[in-house]
Specification:
CATH topology of the largest domain: Peroxisomal Thiolase, Chain A, domain 1
Number of helices: 14
GO molecular function: acetyl-CoA C-acetyltransferase activity
Organism: Ardenticatena maritima
Protein name: Acetyl-CoA C-acetyltransferase
Radius of gyration: 19 Å
Helix content: 25-40%
Strand content: 15-25%
Distance between the termini: 31 Å
Mean pLDDT: 91
Pfam families: Thiolase_C_1, Thiolase_N
CATH superfamily of the largest domain: Thiolase/Chalcone synthase
Largest sheet: 9 strands, mixed
CATH architecture of the largest domain: 3-Layer(aba) Sandwich
Shape: globular
Number of strands: 11
Order of helices and strands: EHEHEHEHHHHEEEHEHHEHHHHEE
Structural class: alpha/beta
CATH class of the largest domain: Alpha Beta
EC number: 2.3.1.9
């Protein structure tokens, strides 16, 4: 396994404030307006003035989707804050953009470059048709044969079918993921969808790419989330409520994994590597026992089941049993996606990773309201952000001090 794992970041950086817009079709807000809303909420939560921010990282995949220029780089962050001269770095890394932005900001603080920094994940995906946005880029890059007719549901449907044939997973198992996440999302005030569904609803919905139907697929959406990071030793001087970053580890594999002879299609190598690196930093041998709550990248229902296995919550092939037995529910032994996940928030690419961190931040501080789960056992949460065709992944571990 290539890549170096180090505990140089462990407990060196705190998250002292976070903010998040409602996710959905935000036609009443521009790219800049929704970004500023998230930033202002994070500043208020941290109880600091914007002048304390020494640098910023913007995670956005394709800001010009919504005609949001300026925004191709980080200049708009300095503009909306009214802070000319602020160093702003734009990060883009497929669907893992948000967590990668957070990761790089944490590195800068841990290295002693800055004391207090801002991370903003921001994206508008609903101002144009889906085929004019992300898919337009994906189908014009990559493998010259595989790209023909390529869709995200089509790629993940391959994995669903292989998992079914290999382990006996059923469409009903996939449906249980959607039912759970809609139940949770109906209780989260910032989710896009507030609607509970049944297994029959999922099974009878229009087919998108067999075996994935409408309710198996995450929608696109608009949204922004922001985080204020600072040196861990400085955090108690600024606020009484904060969490520490225990580990943020990343792995990247080939973007052409679906064409490899060695590709099993029953898991994500990038997730497995990133998770093992994060667990090594935190000294975790048994993730199921060591983690209280997890927010994972459920772009499709099959993805969440694969995540259970790749993150080590259960052995390979037992992901369907995990959802069947209710072990990932709000009342389960490891609640997964208590917010409703991407399934109910939608997936504004650059914002999702920061939004998922916001969910775990609220959970660990006991502020998650109707979706709150017990976190007293370990005081530790996990965030998993998967990107592209499963080719890049960031796994973060956070805990209360």
């Amino acid at each position: 396994m290539s890549g170096r794992t180090s505990d140089a970041l462990r407990d060196k950086v705190a998250i002292i404030g976070m903010g998040c817009t409602r996710f959905g079709v935000l036609q009443d807000k521009s790219f800049a307006e929704q970004g500023l809303e998230a930033v202002n909420e994070a500043l208020a939560d941290a109880g600091i003035e914007k002048e304390r921010i020494e640098a910023a990282w913007l995670g956005t995949f394709e800001p010009n989707i919504g005609g949001s220029f300026p925004g191709y780089a980080g200049d708009f962050v300095a503009d909306i804050l009214g802070m000319p001269g602020l160093p702003v770095t734009r990060v883009t890394n497929y669907c893992a953009t948000g967590m990668d932005a957070l990761r790089n900001a944490a590195f800068a603080v841990a290295a002693g470059m800055y004391d207090v920094v801002l991370v903003l994940g921001n994206e508008k995906m609903r101002d144009v048709a889906s085929r004019d946005s992300l898919i337009r880029q994906v189908v014009t890059t990559g493998h010259p044969i595989v790209q023909k007719g390529l869709t995200a549901p089509g790629l993940f449907a391959l994995m669903a079918r292989r998992h079914m044939e290999t382990f006996g997973t059923t469409r009903e198992d996939l449906a249980l993921v959607a039912v759970k996440n809609h139940y949770n999302g109906n209780r989260h005030p910032k989710a896009m969808f507030h609607k509970e569904i049944t297994v029959d609803d999922v099974l009878n919905a229009p087919m998108i790419s067999e075996p994935l139907g409408l309710y198996d697929c995450t929608p696109t959406s608009d949204g922004a989330a922001a985080a204020i990071l600072c040196r861990a030793d400085l955090a108690p001087q600024l606020t009484d409520e904060y969490i520490l970053i225990e580990a943020i580890e990343m792995a990247t594999v080939t973007g052409h994994r679906y064409g490899r002879r060695s590709e099993s299609l029953i898991g994500f190598e990038a997730t497995q590597i990133a998770a093992q690196r994060a667990y090594a930093v935190a000294g975790i041998d048994d993730p199921l026992a060591a983690i209280d709550v997890a927010e994972v990248h459920d772009c499709f229902t099959i993805t969440e089941i694969l995540n259970y296995e790749d993150l080590g919550f259960v052995p390979k092939g037992e992901g369907a049993h995990f959802i069947r037995e209710g072990r990932s529910s709000l009342e389960g032994d490891l609640p997964v996606n208590p917010s409703g996940g991407l399934k109910c928030f939608g997936h504004p690419i650059g914002a999702s990773g920061v939004r998922m961190t916001y969910v775990i931040y609220e959970q660990l501080l006991g502020r998650a309201g109707a979706t709150q789960v017990p976190t007293e056992r370990n005081g530790r949460g996990l965030v998993h952000n998967l990107g592209g065709p499963g080719s890049v992944c960031v796994v973060g571990l956070y805990h209360r001090p």
